[in-house]
Prior knowledge:
The protein has 416 residues and is an alpha/beta fold.
Amino acid sequence: MTLRLKPSRIKKKSNRKRKGQVSWYKRFKNKDNQEENPGDVLTRDETLYNKIQITDITTENDIYDWQRDISPYSIPSLKFKRVRSLKDLCAQKIADNSNHLNSNIMESINWHIGKLIWEYIQLNQMDSFKIFKLFAQNFHKENTFSCHYQNINIYPSSFTKAYLMNTLPNCKNIRMEMIYKNINLNRFIHINNNDNNFPYIIILNIQKLINQDDIISLTNLINLESLKISIKNSSIINDNLIYNLCIALKNGKLSNLKIISLPEISQSNLIKLQQISKYCQLEYIEITNRLSIDLNLWNEIDLINWEISEFQMNNIKWGLKSMIYLKLESSIVLNFNLTDQIYDPEMTNDLHRQISYDQLWNDEDERYYSYGIYLKNPKEYKKDSKLQPSKEILKPKVLQRGKLNKKGVKNFFDIK
Length: 416
């Protein structure tokens, strides 16, 4: 005997199930539609933003490629009064397309033709930092290689003035670069630590406003030998920052730093820097101050091993001062100036771009007084900090009791 359900009950049951499935699907679909509504999403995000109170701490952006962008002047027209050779024509053609050069192409070029190409690149004011690095990587050992064109008058007057005031006469291995405000400092550090494949040292003059985290991040700049922080940042130079800087120097950070200039530091902080110089390469410390001071009245600083620099030395530009104190040897000097001005690469009017570029290169920092102290005999002074090899300590002889000397046993008992 078989049992059968009535058709009406089967249909009713199936309809109830389908009705439940559809209602659940509608609820799910409506929920998705509500989440995908842009207005609701923005409202929800705005509510979360107001609750969490997120603050954007980013003050710098890579608005332009500082390694590739060149002088905003138009390319000058070169005039030739003689019949040019095929080599000369080829060199100019390569210089006109210098943006396509890479390390593989540079390896196949010798200095005989590379010198011509580099001169045309400089004459056309196309010597961006990235192109300069390609030539420096391959030809920095050549005696006739120069970081800028030897006839400095081809450059804009503002750059020419800044270059002459920050360099020694007839010095070819100095490259000056202006890093504008709209460049991220951490990216600048990363590029210099990883992309420069030639011997170099860095002179860094920070003229823009920065924070304490930026100063601490500078401890990661490997080849930094000269550092100047502008008087504008005097409010962030406090005891805590000097303490952290001294700890970094003692732990091997900024191992190449030899000269430093800090704004409005106190006598106690100057003493800390003097003491920490025993454990690092620091040999020159400069104080910049808005008011005139007399270091001879600071009785607690060390003026036995250190000496106050002459007044004439205090008034020269930081780049030139750095070159006097540093031993350049065969390294290329990268003199970076971090300015507080903003570079706008989208200016279309050549005259406005020229005026803007002149203003950016003009050094119009606040007026201040500078005072420097330097080590008289760095080698002798730093000798004391090194651990002297300890003399070998002889172990004391211990008399061992209860043991007889085998050789003296017969004598002891008089046995014959």
